[in-house]
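Recap for those who missed Tuesday's class. We walked through two folding examples back to back. For each one, the amino acid string is listed first and its predicted structure tokens come directly after. Nothing is annotated here on purpose, so try labeling regions yourself before you check the end of the notes.
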Amino acid sequence: MSDLLHIEVSPQGDNSISRAISKEFMAAFNEKNPGAVIVSRDLANDPIPHLDGETILASRTPEANRSETMQAKHEFRLRLVNEVIEAKHILISTPMWNFSVPSVLKAWIDQMIVSGVTKVTGKVTIIISQGGSYAEGAPRAGWDWETGYLRQVFTSIGATDVEIILSEFGLAGIVPALADFIDRKHASISAAKETAKARAAA
């Protein structure tokens, strides 16, 4: 059993907005929960293999009939599943890429969801950094295919307490077309950090 399962996604290291926000969460969480058991997975530095036919087949094959590679893949998948089941709180921090989730996060999701087995009973906090804004009234309103998807993923496996913390305009100051939104970028990141700290301390 872990107090927190922490999933990091961005490959941007110290330049990552989602990681910067998750650091604020972690600092507040550790202060609130000294000695907490934390399981961390950095999908950028240690990616999860994509679900393949052999892994899928392994779950439908009696153990005695599995090959060595099938058994190894099955055991790895069950380790991911158990990390989710046993976590009191799940924290995911990720950027939005091309209006959806990065493939390394999708690979983790596909591996850890096993129908009838995977069950979330704790809190879920999802930190998402967006390069622009997809809010109502924005030119690309409705193009956010990440936020709703991630919420649905976790509610579908039992989560009843899911909070999504968004930061917007991450590309302001980088993309010329967003030059007028630099102040909104900083305000959005600051607000996301405060929300993350409050969520961790709750």
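Example two. Treat it independently of the first, because the proteins are unrelated.
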Amino acid sequence: MGKYKGIVFDLDGTLVNSEVDFMKMKRNMIAVIEEHGAPKSVLTPQMTTVVILEHAKKYWEEQKKAESEKKWLDDEMTRLMDQGELEAVETLTAIKGANEAVHKLKKMGYRLAILTRSHHEYAVKALEKTNMIGDFETILGRGETPQPKPYAEAMIHAAKLMKLRLGEVFLVGDHHIDATCALNAKCHFIGVATGSRPERAWEINKPEIILPSVADLPAYLEKTAK
């Protein structure tokens, strides 16, 4: 692992425990999408927000909606996601040992970044609340990369802003969306078993390395660097 200079972290389930009601958020999004012409019962809360939005944009294009209406709908989707996330900040907590691990990784010389599909303000507030904000030089939230995770462009953009090559960074996350992003970008990935739904975390693209927690990452890197 000695060739790596930077680490890109997912946020929810990787560094923080968050009680964002994603099912409620997605139900609210789907209700608005269906009210504006999408077929009923095709979109489900079990889909990721990325998939829901991709379907929505396809419906709006097929229906030849005016640009002004498409912008309003895009803004409404963003508002609903932002609202759900920011409501959860009050009860958010750090994954046990994450704070200490992040501080140690910074002292070890790694450049650290956040890559999340959540709102930027939510990410900043989460890191402030858990006293990790000072360790991250780059924070990328929803809409701040050319494409979101799991697309390769998300990781490529993060590495570019860190002024590092893809071969010099790796991604840490708790979900197959993170693993797929790393796979698509052809960069290294380390999984952690602290997500809210560990039984479904690795339905696809199960990583070779899964640590119990981010708390175990510094020791793992020290061991593998020898």
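Answers for example two:
The first strand starts at residue 6 and ends at 9.
The chain has two domains: 6-18+92-224, 22-87.
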